[in-house]
Model the fold of this input.
Amino acid sequence: MYGAGDVRLVDAPDPVIEQPTDALIRVVRTCVCGSDLWTFADMEPSEQGQAMGHEAVGIVEDAGKDVATVKTGDLVIMPMFTADGSCSFCCEGLTSACRHVGFFGRMGFPGAQAEAIRVPHADANLVRVDAAPDDAIVPSLLTLSDVMATGHHAAIGAEVKRGGKVAVVGDGAVGLCGVIAARRLGAEQIIVLGHHDDRTNLAREFGATDVVSVDGEEAVEQVRLLTGGTGAHSVLECVGTEAATATAVEIARPGGAVSRVGVPHYAGIPAFPTWVKNIRVAGGPTPVRPYIDTLLRDVLDGTIQPGRVFDRTIELAKVADAYQAMARREALKVLLNP
Amino acid sequence: MYGAGDVRLVDAPDPVIEQPTDALIRVVRTCVCGSDLWTFADMEPSEQGQAMGHEAVGIVEDAGKDVATVKTGDLVIMPMFTADGSCSFCCEGLTSACRHVGFFGRMGFPGAQAEAIRVPHADANLVRVDAAPDDAIVPSLLTLSDVMATGHHAAIGAEVKRGGKVAVVGDGAVGLCGVIAARRLGAEQIIVLGHHDDRTNLAREFGATDVVSVDGEEAVEQVRLLTGGTGAHSVLECVGTEAATATAVEIARPGGAVSRVGVPHYAGIPAFPTWVKNIRVAGGPTPVRPYIDTLLRDVLDGTIQPGRVFDRTIELAKVADAYQAMARREALKVLLNP
Done:
């Protein structure tokens, strides 16, 4: 990415092992994230550009001499960022706060929208998968790099409980994965707020019980009616805008919880409405690696099928088309084939 | 209160039993709350005025025929608001969200800065105390009406854990009770942020391990150093201003929790700083009654002595002086003697 709207396919040198804890992976599938669209919309022009992408399933091509858990030929899932696996935050499971965190596709770090990528601290990050790299399973594995893990983080932050009433604000790929996560955690009612019929229909297939397709006060009123007048115990805010956050807070039940997983593109969370209702607000960058460990079995046995959020596949050579299709909301989430 | 700065002692009709679930109590001690000072600072002039005060320890003078748990002559603690004790929120313990909540001293509801007061739903609200109404114990009992319960709510919202590092923003009566609560819950380190030597000295007696008396970025830096570079697991924001909230968020450890118990006098909780650190934000009006049940034993056996936050006693007849003394920060918290 060389600036807003300026996506270019360029030849880059092959990555090489730099540290004995590195691994190189050949990318089997990568994709475009909703968060990449913010960069696509507002990046300042840059001469050196930024390698993009942070989601990948790949095959290990080479590994440094200290790497013990993956080897050449292994199918692996790569989390959206690399953590050292040994600092106090990693030990607590909050890998996204790692003291040596490196976000792929940001601030000069390598991007996954590529043929190959170098992964530092391979043992702490890559997860070996005992499966064939076929089209039936790879898309769902790929969602564990970010979007399904992020939907799970939203559900955890919103304290989704068995039997609870849940609302998901947003019908993008994260929102849909939030529906999957809420269902998986046993929510009794899952209301999705979104405008796109194809997406809210998929949400229903994922377990949503109700769809609210209006906005603002009307949406708040509908959620109130659907929840017996009190609001949702758990609200997953999966958009990242001021309006979505205000709605999320308004539809939360007193004593409930709101989580925000989209990068916030607004200044403040409404202070008084959260206070007066004793609402807990949580969320942030997803600690991906521990969540892969939690979610992988359900993906492998087909209990959850988050790969269904991909509704288009494009060759990596035409990556600019993928950004366009998602920015224009013609595609929900695009799989890239290097 | 008839407007900002306009406190008057007036003769009012004696309250009477209106519902069979009411009780009348003769006020033994009441007090002025930090939240009353907001009203004292900015109330619009009003002809009918507002009876003030929401904290009381009293003796039951009369009880309606359906009241079963207290009787004439009992010493009781009155929570700062009345709840019905039977709605879904009360059953979950969030009495402050009761469907029939009534806040004493607000919006036309009776005030406790009086000789007597009518308490609706007496069984659900009043807590009988098996003690003599003497000066050794009554002040501490009185703090269970609000300020000590609120300090406890702050500690619960900030998820204070045994061995945790805690920061308390503000050295007012709520902050000091937050220190007591954090200590009681087993915090290993308790840093209090405040400017008043007499108050921070009392905080140390209550269990604070460190005092930070500077502001803004300097305070943030000191807390960082005191916590080994990472910030506090739990931050209790006990002021209610924008600056205090910004500081609270900045001194929280990634993955930590911030609670806010002062009525927020600002628009928004910083959205990005809370998000990027995965901080949970909680807090709101204190569900007092369940907390009295939790805290009363520790007050009665002297384990905690929150009544020490009262540093002055004034006759109810001179209630205006009490507001002045607290507004000028000459008194920390004033006990009123009807």
Summary: The interface with chain A takes residues 88-89, 92, 94, 96-97, 157, 230, 245, 254-255, 260, 263-264, 266-272, 274-285, 287 of chain B (CB under 8 Å).
